[in-house]
Amino acid sequence: MSSLAQSVVQSVDWLTIAPPTIAAVVGLVVLVADLFVGDHRKALLGWVSVAGLAVSVLALLPLLDGDRSTFCLARDAGVCSYTADRFALVIQFLVLGGALLAALLSMTALKDARRELPEGEFWFLLLSSAAGAALLPASRDLATLIVALEIASLPAFALVGLRYGDRRSSEAALKFFLSSVTATAVSLMGISFVYAVTGTLYLTEIADGIQNVDGQLQTLAQAGVVLTLVGFAFKTAAVPFHFWVPDTYVGAPIPVAAYLSVVGKAVGFSGLILVTVVALPSYADVWGPALAALAALTMTVGNVGALRQQVTRAYSAVRLLAWSSVGQAGYLLVPIAAAAYSDDAQQPIGSTVAYALMYAAVNLGAFAVAALVARTKPLNRVSDYRGLYAASPLTALLLGFFLLCLAGLPPGIIGLFAKVTVFSAAVDAGLGWLAVVMAVNVVIALFYYLQWTALLFRAPEGTPEKYRATAPLTAAIALTGILGIALSGAPQLVLRFADTGLF
């Protein structure tokens, strides 16, 4: 009989599970309130959702005094299904903060497309997905991990295809759904293999049990390890599981694309870290080389794909950001692969989290500016950004700053330091070849980031456009700008995770 069947769950620590719970409850409140709120007051639902996400972020503060766990086994209080440790809290801050900024962007998008996007359903889906994303990094058994992954993913499918009468949106949602379901099915098969050889779903117990697998079950265990990683590799948009990204980002509303680019990646990477470093450290010889190869392939395909967009032509800015996000996913995979070759996995994992925090801030900022430009120029082509400085100097300067951060160039100091941290993790782990591949890709990425940045300051063709900013949209751009500039001025706020580890 399995350890799950033998266990009796302890009482619930409501403070520990407050962040994802608040987001879920507010989502239900918004869905019910939508039935009673008139069309002229639908904007209130957005403000309630923003407030709910803000409270969810604030609910992380009481948990900073030490690790807390709940849903633990009666026979062993150290084996739990939910643990709010330092790693979980940092990722929860990232996903809930990212969801909050996406919500601010969404208020403007819903105002502009009120007939196409149902507001009550939109906010319910966004909050539900955010709740699942916040649950995942604290999950410490494979069942909870997969449930959290699906809670984060299923509403996202609907968000992509929620726009009424938009064929491109529906096609993007279908492609996203089918590919994700296939990846999840493969992961579930892998989990069943792991459970078959260990008899448990708890990550710490799997780490102990899988080391003592009978020789006849070694092949089954290795197959389980590989298959389990597939679903999380899909969420990170790692090649060859990246094909859904460009069409999905372009077909989705811009705030949803921004949400997927940051929160969706955080979900995938946190799950990948938990499965590899916590549950399967003894199989580092299996997942280490696989992730190193995926990192090299992902950053190369992503950057070459972005380069092919030829930013001076009439290509979509969101599609360029989509390919860029695939390339950035490759950089994020590097330290996780390095953890397999390191005596202490904490420092490489800290490098991944530090890079993810930098990426989240500046990438959401770039999408926020894209949302502003799209209000005046719905096609949102890269060529539409020509002369942005003449029309809106501060907006152009901020977008240029965000792009330079993604490229790793001054004055985007935080982007430079984050890349150096990831590069160092590869070198310290003895992955010199991967560090060389990363260096080459950074040079490739410079071309399209700098070309787009230069376009902002070129003379406009004709009279400069006037961009119509709303208060929520302005707040989102300002928050990301302040955060990016603050981190560039004091990069130790993020980079300390790379020095001290997380677990």
Q: Widest sheet: strand order?
A: 1-2
Computed over alpha carbons, the radius of gyration is 22 Å
Beta-strand proportion: under 5%
User: What does the main sheet amount to?
Assistant: 2 strands, antiparallel
Our measurement of the CA-to-CA distance between the termini, rounded to an integer number of angstroms, reads: 31 Å
Counting structural domains, the number is: 2
Q: Which word captures the global form? A: globular
Strand segment count:
2
**Could you list the spans in which at least 5 consecutive residues all have pLDDT below 50?**
1-7
Mean pLDDT: 86
Helix percentage range = over 70%
Number of helical regions:
20
Class of secondary structure makeup: mainly alpha
**How do the SSEs run, as a string of H and E?**
HHHEEHHHHHHHHHHHHHHHHH
Record the SSE blueprint:
Elements: H1 3-6, H2 18-33, H3 43-58, E1 68-72, E2 80-84, H4 86-112, H5 119-135, H6 142-160, H7 167-198, H8 203-209, H9 218-235, H10 245-251, H11 254-279, H12 284-307, H13 317-339, H14 346-376, H15 388-391, H16 393-407, H17 413-428, H18 432-456, H19 471-489, H20 492-500
Antiparallel strand pairs: 1-2
Subcellular location: Cell membrane; Endomembrane system; Membrane
Domain NADH:quinone oxidoreductase/Mrp antiporter transmembrane: 139-444
GO molecular function: NADH dehydrogenase (quinone) (non-electrogenic) activity; NADH dehydrogenase (ubiquinone) activity; quinone binding
Give a written overview of the molecule.
There is one protein chain. This protein is an all-alpha fold and 503 residues long. It folds into 2 domains: 1-169 and 244-271, no CATH class; 282-503, no CATH class. It is 71% helix and 2% strand. The chain has 20 helices and 2 strands. The protein has helices spanning 3-6, 18-33, 43-58, 86-112, 119-135, 142-160, 167-198, 203-209, 218-235, 245-251, 254-279, 284-307, 317-339, 346-376, 388-391, 393-407, 413-428, 432-456, 471-489, 492-500; strands at residues 68-72, 80-84. It has a two-stranded antiparallel ribbon with strand order 1-2. Strand 1 (68-72) and strand 2 form a beta hairpin. The longest helix has 32 residues, at 167-198. The chain is globular and about 75 Å long. Mean pLDDT is 86; it is low at 1-7.
